[in-house]
Amino acid sequence: MTQESLTEKLATHLMRPVDEATRQRARLHLLDWLGCVAGARQSELAKLAIDKKIEGDAVGFATWLGNILEMDDIHRTSILHPGPVIWPSVLDPIDSFSDILDGAVRGYEATIAVGSTFDAIHYGSYHNTATAGFFGSTAGHWKYGQAGTEEESIAKVQLASAFGLAGSVSGGLWQMRHEGGNTKQWHIVHAVNSALNASSFALDGIVGPRFILEGEQGLYAATCENPKPMTFPDQWRIHEVSFKPWGACRHAHPAIDAALELKARLGSLDGDIHVETYADAISFCDRPDPQSVNDAKFSIQHAVAIVATKGVPQLADFEPDAIAALTEARSRITVAEASDITDRYPEHYGARIACAGETVALVDTLGDPERPLSKDGIIDKARSLIAWGGLSEKEADRAVDLALNGDDAEAIDKMLSDWLS
What we know:
- By secondary structure, this protein is mostly helical.
- It contains 21 helices and 4 strands.
- A 4-stranded mixed beta sheet has the order 2-1-3-4.
- Strand 3 and strand 4 form a beta hairpin.
- The chain is globular.
């Protein structure tokens, strides 16, 4: 019997039916993504896209915007953000809404299934959202056959081939962390567009490599040292995805969370503040002197300075005026790695913070499955983002209703067109 590849096993795993509770969970992630898109509509990139007509349709335009504000959903152990890749892959206005929700659930699943196999060597150089996103976007695009039929059997073979095509060009190097520009957004656009092509060509009979992940010159051989086993749990993994409450890199959130708790205990955070966290948080977010909005969003020092001087971080607190105003507060904050916190990562994103002789240590961060945002909290976040994007409360009502109660993909497409015209 021919050995079954990982992508063939993944294709089989994705063919099972999606339950209604999981569809409802997907609706919350759709609203979260819509809020992130709306919040970014007045960004410099959005203005450039409108001026240069970078993408002609609403969903194509929105693809550029979903991760700009650093508020997009995140899966911890795979260290990636599924939403910005998956929702543009599935929002086809001619599809039924149930098919869109099912496609999103499967897209999240494939992204996380592949991303969870990458090791620290891969994450050290590669943007996991992009690398795994090629697979997730392909799964989201795919049209699944009826269970137990010959059509489904053929679809599995073709989907594995589409994974092979998409995986053969997947990637996304982290060099953009060290420079300005829009490469992080381009990674998302490239994954979505490449996956659409891979799906289309596979349906036309173009054959991709079956062993694109584990083969001798596959993705693992090229980018990993010790890839982790791929697993196929019964529960859809969209239930494991976290919602981000604040507009900063997720690696800065544990320090924010701990600082908020310590400030509530002490009443204020005066004097020197010392933060301990895991190694990747230091690698990504040890920036004592941010010079740009993006720098500030990737600065533990700036995030904690916001808490110390103001309280709960708002998007305005990462803008240029706030960066300048918090120079002195940042100078009081030191950051270091703690091995015990690193040992728990990435299953847990934690931090420890000390000030005035008091210490707070957190294992899990607000928005994670252990400390979830409520449905109302997710709705409030979306409303806040939509307002930040300059849209009315009526538009927020529109988004909440279409995402959580609607069944009209064309109406969502029309809303995005209205927002981004």
